[in-house]
Amino acid sequence: MSDPFAQPGIQVIPEEKTETQQRLGRPWKVIVWDDPVNLMSYVVYVFQTLFGMPYEEATTKMMEVHKQGRSIVKVCDREDAEVYVEKLHAFGLQATMERVDE
Amino acid sequence: MIFRRVESDDDREALLEVTLEAAEMRFLRKVPKKLKDIFLHPDRSPAVIDRLFPPTYDDPETEKEHRRLLGETLLERRKEGLECFSQILDRADGGRLTASVAEINLLLQVLNDYRLMLGVEMNLTDNDWSSDARVFFRHPRKFAEMAFASALQEEIIRGCSEDT
Predict the structure, then answer these.
(1) Which residues form the domain of A69?
(2) Do A42 and B74 make contact, defined as CB atoms within 8 angstroms?
(3) Phi/psi at A3 (nearest 5 deg)?
């Protein structure tokens, strides 16, 4: 598809990202860990409240946490992931964040 | 505990009317007092503090830096949350109060902090602790408190889910 804003004689070369830029730009995953005290209904409520998940999806994620010990509840950029983890902690859920593998 | 949706003046946020029984109000009133003591003297209850402020990063160095930057702020926010919790309860008239969903969420958060504190104090590590008689016999009072707090939490969640 031609670029309607292209100027004659000027070729736009896509900027190549350095390894560091690529590493920094990789998304992060927010992980919720199993906990013996938090109620199942509470975890479902928190997932619905923070992530806007429908009840069925929130329940599936909660069961994943309960049975497998952890669940990835969000993949986003680092700043957003930090905010989500902070909010999950405020609700008392055990949550961490880690960079998505290459 | 009874929940009822009420009309807000500006339609911008949902409001809920909550009617608390006397025993529920008595219990909720003491929740912030105990937590406040822990937040004011975090060095006296390190295990509870560790549970209420879990790590964000697996990498120890990144976590250390994160704590350095945000640790105090997070503790201050928790203290402010306790103040708001008490102020919401102070609005109750005859056990009845009106609260926004955000305020109800704050009630849930503080109540859950209390449950987590009890969980640490009872050394709960197994998901089936509630049916383990040994836990009850070791910590009868805390076990009863946990049961009451859990029931309250379930009722609040049910009330929010039905009315929002």
Answers:
(1) 36-99
(2) no
(3) -90, 115
DSSP for B31-53 reads: HHHHHHHHHHSGGG-HHHHHHHS
Asked, for residue A16, whether it belongs to a domain, the answer is: no
- What is the domain count for chain A? 1
- CB-count exposure of residue A65 (10 Å: 0-12, 13-18, 19+): buried
What is the model's pLDDT at position B127?
A: 84
Count other Cβ atoms within 10 Å, centred on residue A72. 13
Check CB contact of B61 with chain A, cutoff 8 Å: no
Residue A21 lies in a domain: no
Q: Chain A: nearest CA to B98, how far in angstroms?
A: 20
Across the interface, of A42, A95, A97, the residue whose CB is closest to B153 is A42
Taking only the tens place, the pLDDT of each residue in B91-141 is 988 889 999 999 999 999 999 999 999 999 999 988 888 888 888 889 999
Mean pLDDT per 10-residue run, chain A (102 residues)? Answer: 53 60 78 96 96 96 96 95 96 96 70
Is A67 inside any structural domain?
Answer: yes
Q: Where are the domains of chain B?
A: 2-163
Find the CB nearest A42 among B113, B124, B157: B157
Q: Are A96 and B57 inside 8 Å of each other by CB?
A: yes
* CB–CB contact B153 A98 (8 Å): no
Cβ contacts of A56 on chain B, cutoff 8 Å:
none
Predicted TM-score (pTM) of the model is 0.86
DSSP, collapsed to helix, strand or coil, labels residue A50 as helix
